[in-house]
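Subject: Predicted fold for 30S ribosomal protein S16, chloroplastic, 69 residues

User T.R. writes:
Posting the sequence so we have a shared reference for the thread.
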Amino acid sequence: MYRIVAIDVRSRREGRDLRKVGFYDPIKNQTYLNVPAILYFLEKGAQPTGTVYDISKKAEIFKELRITH
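User M.O. replies:
I've generated the structure tokens; pasting them so everyone works from the same file.
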């Protein structure tokens, strides 16, 4: 199970997260994404990791980001 979090790039890898924005469980094939929080961080310049990018793309979050711009 993966927690999806927003974290400051200046923090160490296991440092304190700014906010939990979702989770992904590949065994149960469950995903929960807090879309408003994810969009907020993306609009502020956050860069998702490859895995988070793939999960977000599958959930069509980037389409919602384009609508707001």
